[in-house]
């Protein structure tokens, strides 16, 4: 065993968290039980760069139970839970991460993971894939393929594929129905509000809540904020999404107009510098800024620091910047993913669906000869997860009659 974690003695606490999560991850458990006897990943090394918390641990342990050698790095310094890492090491997973690791440590950990010469990858943000292509090209022929969990990661993979630079197949799990319809919408919606509420202890009802980006994640955040009584404002660059937000009952503004009105701001765009210095100059006293995009670049931290005269930390995961005119702007979780850095991430049942899809994607990569490039999760696997969830949750699905099936295939009157 090789590992680089904070403290192996924290394992008992981590075991409790993993056991709690496993109770709600029924689909992943069903898939593990189905394939356990055949141990399909025997001889395979799976390398993951993911948020290392209890739900992720369930996926990694399922892969190990099915025969894989598993090595993992944390994809975010503030989302890594040290007790979960200790419990994973105890169960035979090679882990390289600690809560609060520096950027340099993060990069070192990715190199240590690659040192295990992985054959299948599970990435969150494309950093593992990018590093392999940049610095370990001699290992590329030995990699069967991988899968990507996030919108930001898929965007980077598309850019690589467009340049014919992707040397092995990658499955865009993020783009599967079972992922974005539930994880991105219901998962992000609930977990972002959870992170904000547990960090600030402020009232949402009656406040103006600005959501930058109205993709599936933004839709979820806006819906949950509205459900708590907020007046929701959406900032968008896409005309169709802006119209959709309008018809969903939300105000649509530019960030310049929204900046003066907002009490809470959440960025969830996948782009950089969404909230800049000119916006911060217009904000109310005690405005709260949070990011739910993958990287900590959506809120311009250099602009915020350059405008502030004083910085205080009166609460965990809250930095208060005092401006020259006395206004205070509060930044949550250092501008990193607020739902994971200041909370426990998506609900257990949501990640059960996403990680079941990741397990099936890994099996598909192992069993199928895919060409290099970006591939969708096969529709049959996407549907399989949904059907397993319906069965596990005791929900009944209507069936077409034979006559209805014929009617759907016929073009004549």
UniProtKB/TrEMBL annotation:
One of its GO terms (biological process) is S-adenosylmethionine cycle. It is an enzyme of class 3 (hydrolase). Pathway: Amino-acid biosynthesis; L-homocysteine biosynthesis; L-homocysteine from S-adenosyl-L-homocysteine: step 1/1. Its cofactor is NAD(+). NAD(+) binds at residues 150-152, 215-220, 236, 292-294, 339, 346. It catalyses: S-adenosyl-L-homocysteine + H2O = L-homocysteine + adenosine. Pfam families: AdoHcyase (PF05221), AdoHcyase_NAD (PF00670). The keyword Hydrolase applies. Binds 1 NAD(+) per subunit. Keywords: Hydrolase, NAD, One-carbon metabolism. Its EC number is 3.13.2.1. Residues 184-345 form the S-adenosyl-L-homocysteine hydrolase NAD binding domain. Signal peptide: none annotated. One of its GO terms (cellular component) is cytosol. GO terms for molecular function: adenosylhomocysteinase activity. Belongs to the adenosylhomocysteinase family. This is Adenosylhomocysteinase. It comes from Aminithiophilus ramosus.
């Amino acid at each position: 065993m090789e590992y680089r974690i904070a403290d192996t003695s924290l394992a008992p606490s981590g075991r409790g968290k993993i056991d709690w999560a496993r109770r709600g991850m029924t689909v992943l458990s069903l898939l593990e039980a189905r394939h356990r006897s055949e141990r399909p990943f025997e001889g395979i090394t799976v390398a993951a760069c993911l948020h290392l918390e209890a739900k992720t641990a369930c996926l990694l342990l399922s892969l190990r139970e099915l025969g894989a050698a598993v090595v993992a790095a944390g994809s975010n310094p503030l989302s890594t839970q040290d007790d979960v890492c200790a419990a994973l090491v105890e169960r035979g997973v090679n882990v390289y991460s600690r809560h609060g690791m520096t950027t340099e440590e993060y990069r070192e950990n990715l190199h240590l993971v690659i040192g295990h010469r992985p054959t299948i990858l599970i990435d969150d943000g494309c950093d593992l894939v990018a590093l392999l292509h940049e610095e370990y090209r001699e290992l590329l022929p030995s990699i069967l393929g991988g899968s990507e969990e996030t919108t930001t990661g898929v965007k980077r993979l598309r850019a690589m594929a467009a340049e014919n630079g992707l040397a092995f197949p990658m499955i865009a799990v993020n783009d599967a129905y079972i992922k974005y319809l539930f994880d991105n919408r219901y998962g992000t919606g609930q977990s972002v509000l959870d992170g904000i509420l547990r960090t600030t202890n402020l009232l949402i009802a009656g406040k103006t809540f600005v959501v930058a980006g109205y993709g599936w994640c933004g839709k979820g955040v806006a819906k949950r904020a509205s459900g708590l009584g907020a007046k929701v404002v959406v900032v968008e660059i896409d005309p169709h999404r802006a119209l959709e937000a309008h018809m969903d009952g939300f105000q649509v503004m530019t960030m310049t107009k929204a900046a003066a009105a907002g009490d809470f701001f959440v960025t969830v765009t996948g782009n950089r510098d969404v909230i800049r210095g000119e916006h911060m100059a217009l904000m109310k006293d005690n405005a709260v800024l949070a990011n739910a995009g993958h990287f900590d670049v959506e809120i311009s931290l250099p602009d915020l620091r350059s405008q502030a005269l004083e910085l205080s930390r009166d609460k965990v995961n809250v930095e208060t910047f005092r401006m020259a005119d006395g206004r205070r702007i509060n930044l949550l979780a250092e501008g990193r993913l607020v739902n994971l850095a200041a909370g426990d991430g998506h609900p257990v049942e949501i990640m059960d669906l996403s990680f079941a899809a990741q397990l099936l994607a890994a099996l598909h990569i192992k069993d199928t000869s895919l060409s290099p490039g970006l591939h969708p999760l096969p529709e049959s696997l996407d549907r399989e997860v949904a059907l397993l969830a319906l069965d596990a949750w005791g929900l009944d699905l209507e069936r077409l009659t034979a006559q209805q099936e014929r009617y759907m295939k016929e073009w004549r009157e």
